[in-house]
Automatic annotation (TrEMBL):
Record's protein name: Histidinol dehydrogenase
EC number(s) per entry: 1.1.1.23
Coiled coil location: none
Single Gene Ontology BP annotation: L-histidine biosynthetic process
Organism of this sequence: Methylacidimicrobium tartarophylax
Cofactor requirement: Zn(2+)
Positions that bind Zn(2+): Q253, H256, D355, H414
Keyword terms, alphabetized: Metal-binding, NAD, Oxidoreductase, Zinc
Cofactor note: Binds 1 zinc ion per subunit.
InterPro entries: Ald_DH/histidinol_DH, Histidinol_DH_CS, Histidinol_DH_monofunct, Hstdl_DH
CDD domains in the record: Histidinol_dh
Sequence similarity: Belongs to the histidinol dehydrogenase family.
Source lineage: Bacteria, Pseudomonadati, Verrucomicrobiota, Methylacidimicrobium
UniProt: NAD(+) binding residues: Y127, Q185, N208
Gene Ontology MF, one: metal ion binding
């Protein structure tokens, strides 16, 4: 089979080389890092003036600082659009409620209470992409989680001009402030704050390479959720797969932007050939065909594996943002996959359903980071605090062990802080030990 696509065959090529080609790390280029660094520095130094300049430079929109904040009521869109938004919102809210972390406690070995408490964050920033398409669903996949968590101030930013439906979705989902700002400069504004926008405690949301790199560089001075970059999908298909559906899923993620990645792993030569033919046919009719063509040229890989197990093993290594399992037994297959952001099981689960309305957030780890990072989840809108409560008897039970640790680490005050609570005997013992070792004794009441 001849093709303009990059096809790897596990029966003919060195498997370790194939593994190497699939293994990737989302590392920004030095040029991109530098560009973002200078944008962040400009915003930090010049605040609103830099924001206005950068918005003119990158978004080609002239805004004065007074125009950044949108205060007007949202214009309701057509009923069918309202219905779609309400449907998605309903699913996401329900998912958010079901996955809300709960305070809990248990008794440890010596009978003390230990547990966790979750408090909603006070003020969060949500980036909603809008450079190449107004990602209304990205507003619905972040803001409702914050709202359901009980976050009081939810600050949304998106590149100008904000599409009216996106503005409506942001307001309906519960954003309390909306700013017409995009790119790395918007992320910088959320982190540093300026005269017109107060800083937030944590920044959420996906975006292009500039947005993601800005979040990465600002991590530490502000909390961030994860680094969700250009969209990607991997499909694992066996001989039962419907080529038309598989191609449609691959093209759906390809149309996001030229940096999207798509990967097909199949054990069937016939399915591979049919999917390639379907891609050709379906791509022809797509409005964003030039973007799709760029992805097919630069970021599309097709792997013919020797069997399904090999495909499942390799895809776990690739750790895609989305994994579609177009196989006869999807649940069994899912159990064999090590890492990915989200799994779509079976023939009737298009990735687009998860993108738009299924319930779990579509904000997911990309660039191989799903090997260790999770997608956006409810817990991330809370600050978790651990709780410890000893009774006198529980403390007395472990005071000797505390004393031992204090001795090992050479931190006598630590040991004393427990001993002093459980009685004079332990304190007297500590004093005697200190005298034996020639340390100056301290008075303990
Ligand atoms: N992983 C996920 O969960 C997820 C979810 C949704 C979207 N996405 C991804 O989000 C991305 C959205 O990207 P987008 O570009 O459409 O919108 P965006 O809003 O992320 O980026 C647009 C902004 O980038 C800035 N910019 C553009 N060119 C620049 C340059 N040369 N230098 C500096 N800044 C520049 C501009 O300020 C502009 O406002 C896509 O890659 C999509 O795949 C990922
Ligand atoms: N596929 C994107 C996440 O990678 C989410 C999205 C928004 N709109 C359409 N799709
Ligand atoms: Zn999508």
């Amino acid at each position: 089979m001849t093709s303009r696509y990059r096809i790897l065959r596990c029966d003919r090529e060195d498997l370790s080389l194939i593994r190497k080609q699939l293994h990737r790390r989302a590392v920004p280029s030095p040029e991109l890092s530098e560009r973002v660094r200078s944008i962040l520095a400009r915003v930090e130094a010049k605040g609103d003036t830099a924001l206005a300049e950068l918005t003119q430079e990158f978004d080609r929109v002239a805004l004065s600082p007074a125009d950044f904040c949108r205060k007007e009521a949202a214009e309701p869109p057509a009923p069918a659009v309202r219905k779609a938004i309400a449907w998605s919102l309903g699913n996401v809210r329900r998912f958010a409620r079901a996955s809300r972390p709960r305070d809990w406690r248990m008794r440890n070995r010596e009978g003390a209470w230990v547990g966790e408490r979750f408090q909603p964050l006070d003020r969060v920033g949500v980036y909603v992409p809008g450079g190449s398409a107004p990602l209304v669903s990205s507003a619905l996949m972040t803001v409702p989680f914050a709202r359901e968590a009980g976050v009081r101030e939810i600050v949304a930013v998106s590149p100008p001009p904000i599409h009216p439906v996106l503005y409506y979705a942001l307001r309906t989902a519960g954003a309390t402030e909306v700013y017409s700002l995009g790119g790395a400069q918007a992320v910088a504004a959320l982190a540093y704050g300026t005269k017109s926008i107060r800083p937030v405690d944590k920044i959420f949301g996906p975006g292009n390479a500039y947005v993601v790199e800005a979040k990465r560089q600002l991590f530490g001075m502000v909390a961030v959720d994860l680094l969700p970059g250009p969209s990607e999908v991997a499909v694992v298909a066996d001989e039962s797969a419907r080529a038309e559906f598989v191609a449609a899923d691959l093209l759906a993620q390809a149309e996001h932007g030229p940096s999207s990645r798509i990967l097909l792993l199949t054990s069937s030569q016939k399915v591979l050939e049919e999917v390639v033919a379907q891609i050709e046919e379906q791509a022809e009719a797509l409005p964003r065909r030039s973007i799709v063509e760029a992805v097919l040229r630069d970021h599309a890989v097709f792997v013919l594996t020797r069997n399904l197990e090999e495909a499942l093993d390799l895809v776990g290594e690739f750790a895609p943002e989305h994994l579609s399992l177009a196989v006869r037994h999807p649940h069994r297959a899912a159990g064999q996959v090590r890492h990915c952001g989200a799994i779509y099981l079976g023939v009737y689960s298009p990735v687009a359903a998860g993108d738009f309305l299924a319930g779990p957030s579509h904000t997911l780890p990309t660039g191989g980071s799903a090997r260790a990072f999770d997608g956006l989840r409810m817990e991330q809108f809370f600050q978790r605090t651990s709780l410890v409560e000893y009774s006198r008897s529980a403390l007395a039970r472990v005071e000797p062990e505390i004393a031992r640790f204090a001795e090992i680490e050479g931190l006598a005050a630590h040991g004393r802080s427990a001993a002093v609570r459980v009685g004079p005997r332990q304190v007297a013992e500590m004093k005697r030990a200190a005298l034996r070792e020639g340390a100056p004794s301290t008075k303990v009441k």
